[in-house]
Design a protein that fits this description.
The protein is mainly alpha-helical. 68% of the residues lie in helices and 3% in strands. The chain has helices at 2-29, 59-77, 79-105, 124-138, 154-183, 186-190, 203-209, 217-239, 241-248, 267-281, 286-314, 329-348, 350-383, and strands spanning 40-41, 45-47, 50-53, 56-57. The strands form 2 sheets. A two-stranded antiparallel sheet has the order 1-4. Strands 2-3 form a two-stranded antiparallel ribbon. Helix 3 (79-105) packs antiparallel against helix 8 (217-239).
């Protein structure tokens, strides 16, 4: 299962996240600078009659590709450069999000009665689909453990950083969403920029006009671009450590485990991850990319939580550096809810589901091939 998780992270989750952040960054920036006028015809790409890459490269996609290339190069320099950049971007992002939340909550044209508005219940299936989209905002909590080998006193600091980060993100996002609904009526929030309303302003832009007034496109474009770029850099920084670890164990091409001479960075893993991210950035919109990433990720979140239960039953005496509060209720409830979410996604959104399940099945085949190759190498060594 560990190999399949790494396979999933390498082919879908990490490059899909990086691609989504890059496309999102460029989309946000295009609200101030009309990038679509710079579209380029590239011919497109089809498989079995299905359009995989569109025939036209939009200006936003071109900027997104440029962002991936630049930040991939920065993270090839050394861990310290990528880490310092991430710290600076995160601080800027936090200040801007809190400023947006405060402004929306204090907006003179806002109304607390907006929080009582809403539409008819859309049904459990549609509700599950919306939850899948919302979970993207909270994803990323699992990135820090991927860099555990470079964290001082990981046994002590990793749980604190993970739990503290999750609490901070939950509180911040809850606060900013309350601010949105205070500043805007439900209908304006629901009709903000998405695949259903591709030309509508972002909800943050609509909320900001309630307390800033006048043209705020440039200011918000910069703020939202920095926010998305910060998340993108974090994914690039941590994601390449997964294929590096797998290759180091002999279950992936050895080049992925090679460290650069001076910086001691898995540069080849970083570059390959960047190339996959560029490819995915050409294939879909922000919403399509995030749906595929969230489904593929939650497939393994459910399996990982289930493995906690199995390990406690099979190996009760094993040393446990990290413990689950509320065991066994917490992992059982988590697994049940994750299964419901996944089943509903398969029913309501078959395309991202098929991508996640298909790549996982392919990963199982590749794993067996590597095991057979290692077994043959062992036989040859024994014969010699």
């Amino acid at each position: 299962m560990g190999y399949l998780f790494a396979w999933n992270r390498f082919w879908i989750a990490t490059p899909g996240s990086v691609a989504a952040y890059a496309v999102g960054s460029a989309t946000f920036f295009s609200t101030a600078v009309p990038l679509d006028r710079f579209a380029v015809h590239i011919g497109g790409f089809r498989i079995a009659g299905v359009q995989i890459i569109s025939e036209q490269l939009s200006g936003a996609q071109a900027v997104g590709l440029g962002l991936i290339v630049v930040f991939t190069a920065i993270n090839c320099l050394n861990v310290r450069s990528g880490g310092r950049l991430q710290t600076a971007l995160t601080v800027m992002k936090g200040v801007m999000i809190l400023g947006l939340a405060a402004g929306a909550l204090l907006a003179p044209r806002g109304h607390w009665s907006n929080l009582g508005q809403g539409g008819a219940f859309p049904g459990w299936s549609a509700m599950g689909t919306m939850v899948l989209a919302a979970l993207w905002a909270y994803d990323g909590w699992n990135n820090l453990p991927m860099a555990a080998g470079e964290i001082r006193d990981a046994k002590r600091n990793l749980p604190r950083a993970t739990v503290g980060g999750m609490i901070a993100v939950l509180a911040t996002y809850a606060l900013v969403n309350v601010g949105y609904f205070h500043a805007l009526p439900f209908s304006e929030v629901a009709s903000s920029s998405s695949d259903a309303f591709p030309h509508a302003p972002a909800v943050a832009a609509r909320a900001a006009t309630q307390f800033l007034g006048g043209p705020v496109q440039v200011l918000l474009a910069v703020a939202m671009t920095i926010s998305a770029v910060s998340a993108m850099n974090g994914s690039i920084l941590t994601g390449a450590r997964v294929p590096y670890a797998v290759a180091r164990d002999g279950l992936a091409p050895g080049a992925l485990a090679r460290l650069s001479a001076g910086a001691h960075v898995p540069a080849i893993s970083v570059v390959v991850q960047g190339a996959l991210s560029c490819l995915l950035a050409l294939t879909g919109s922000f919403d399509q990319l995030t749906d595929a990433v969230v489904f593929a990720s939650w497939l393994f979140y459910a399996l990982n939580a289930g493995s906690v239960l199995l390990l406690r039953l099979r190996e009760p005496a094993r040393e446990r550096p990290f413990r689950v509060p509320g065991f066994p209720v917490v992992p059982i409830v988590f697994v049940m809810l994750a299964i419901l979410l996944l089943v509903n996604t398969i029913w309501a959104s078959p395309r991202p589901s098929a991508l996640g399940l298909g790549m996982t099945a392919l990963g199982a085949i590749v794993y067996l091939v590597f095991l057979r190759g290692r077994a043959r190498s062992g036989e040859v060594s024994a014969g010699e």
